[in-house]
Design brief:
Aspartate Aminotransferase, domain 1; single chain; about 475 residues; Aspartate Aminotransferase, domain 2; alpha/beta; 20 helices; binds pyridoxal-5'-phosphate
């Protein structure tokens, strides 16, 4: 008999393994357990056939099965600790919701609710009624509606206002926001015809004027959220565009992107347009995201003149883009907090983190540093320093925001190994490596996670 077949016969049987105390005591679905046992046995068989000699001890096989079960039973979509300092991290779910928004989601999710029911009349209501008035009140808009995200909002706006017509856009604003969201392609999908004017770096009011024809449906301005042209640059402001458009009876549409609803320049965040100023310009329709600088759930918010909003509600795309009840619950709760400017700065995690200054960040950094020092052995060294983070979410791309950072230098493992181990934790920690250190930016880490972060660093720095 060959070595191979002798080894193959030594692999424990499925039933034997299932009876092993460490597996029979597991509290998981039986199908998951048997599937895991089969997969582990199968891997061993493959290894033997490939000429390897894997360990065939029952104990070690059971440990592998438990790892396999854990992997299968862990939720794929789950929380992580964001130690990157990037507040609106698109890959990490963008905006964290306020406590009130989370509560609203929970209560609506667990019970029947008023999604499309009018309690006063005892009859069918509108799903948009829950937030329309709030949005109008906060922004001063005549009317409002909400859809699944801002990409859908832009599509709906163009499809309603510009189908079969020409839309004039500056070449400096034909941007790609991410994924397949590119202004020229969205325009094509919506049925509008793009009329490009100006150049990449300079567009003048006369460029818009010259492009007007009897078939012009709208002027579109797109906020170039995620990049910035510096130097020899000129654009036509929203105010100017509104004047030009209205003199000619042409509606002006503004894709604002981030949707800041407080004046962030008061907190050192410059150059980000804000919903209130955009509204004052007199633009006919403005759209923005719910989960960027507004700090709410993923949503696309459209505000503007009633005649256009009414038409959008009748567009068949509205059904395809419609917002779901959980989002709506979170959105209503988030917007309600905006009614009190002081309250929203306190309660909205995005605003709280973005507006945090060194006055609060340095003591926070000192606390994390102290937690590290408390648990530390000789497997790593730690320093308290400063670094620059970003707002993220494709907003204020050129502005770095100063923060307090704890820097880790592992003694026995490489930085790459440490970074990877932190990602493999049951509650993963996402950190970045810079200049031969692993950096933990306290701007985006909650204080109640500090002890966990410190213990995890200690664990992951071991040989
Ligand atoms: C982010 C952004 C979008 C897309 O918004 P989503 O909510 O991510 O769909 C569209 N336009 C601009 C200008 C943006 O910044």
């Amino acid at each position: 008999m060959s070595v191979n077949s002798q080894l193959l016969r030594k692999i424990p049987k499925v039933d034997e393994l299932l009876r092993h105390p460490s597996l029979s005591s597991l509290s998981c679905q039986h199908t998951v357990l048997t599937e895991s046992v089969r997969e582990v046995i199968d891997t061993l068989r493959q290894q033997i056939l490939a000429g390897e000699e894997p360990c065939l001890e029952e104990e070690s096989i059971c440990e592998e099965v438990i790892r396999c079960v854990t992997k299968k039973t862990t939720m794929s979509l789950r929380p992580v600790i964001n130690a990157t300092g990037i507040v609106l991290h698109t890959n990490l779910g963008r905006a964290k919701l306020s406590d009130a928004a989370v509560k609203a989601i929970q209560s609506v999710a667990q019970d029947y609710n008023t999604l499309e029911y009018n309690l006063e009349k005892g009859s069918r209501g509108s799903r948009y009624a829950h937030v329309e008035k709030l949005i109008s009140k906060l922004t001063g808009a005549e009317d409002a509606m909400v859809v699944n995200n801002n990409a859908a909002a832009v599509m709906l706006v163009l499809s309603t206002m510009a189908k079969g017509k020409e839309v004039v856009v500056s070449r400096g604003e034909l941007v790609e926001i991410g994924g397949a969201f590119r202004v020229p392609e969205i325009m094509a999908q919506s049925g509008g015809t793009l009329v490009e004017v100006g150049t990449t770096n300079k567009t003048h009011p006369s460029d818009y004027v010259k492009a007007v024809s009897e078939n012009t449906g709208a002027f579109l301005k797109v906020h170039t959220s995620n990049f910035k042209i510096m130097g020899f640059f000129e654009e036509v402001s929203l105010d100017e565009m509104v004047t030009l458009g209205h003199e000619r009876n042409i509606p002006v549409i503004y894709d604002l992107g981030s949707g800041a609803m407080v004046r962030l320049e008061d907190y050192g965040i410059l150059d980000e347009p804000n919903v209130l100023d955009a509204m004052k310009s007199g633009a006919d329709v403005i759209s923005f995201s719910g989960d960027k600088l507004m700090g709410g759930p993923q949503a696309g918010i459209i505000i503007g003149k009633r005649e256009y909003i009414e038409a959008m509600k009748k567009n068949p795309l509205t059904r395809a883009f419609r917002i779901d009840k959980l989002t709506l619950a979170a959105l209503e709760a988030t917007l309600r907090e905006y009614l009190d400017p002081a309250e929203v700065l306190q309660n909205n995690p995005t605003l709280r983190m973005i507006t945090a200054t060194m006055e609060t960040l340095v003591p926070k950094g000192e606390k994390l540093f102290a937690c590290m020092e408390k648990v530390r052995d000789d497997s790593f060294s730690v320093a308290l320093t400063e670094d620059f983070g970003q707002v993220g979410g494709g907003s204020v791309p050129t502005q770095m925001i100063r923060s307090s950072v704890v820097a880790i230098t592992p003694a026995y493992v490489s930085l790459d190994v440490l970074e990877k181990r932190l990602r493999e934790l049951s509650l993963p920690i996402i950190a970045r490596i810079s200049k031969d250190r692993l950096l933990l930016d306290v701007r985006t880490i909650e204080e109640h996670h500090f002890d966990y972060v410190a213990e995890s660093i200690l664990k992951c720095c071991q040989k």
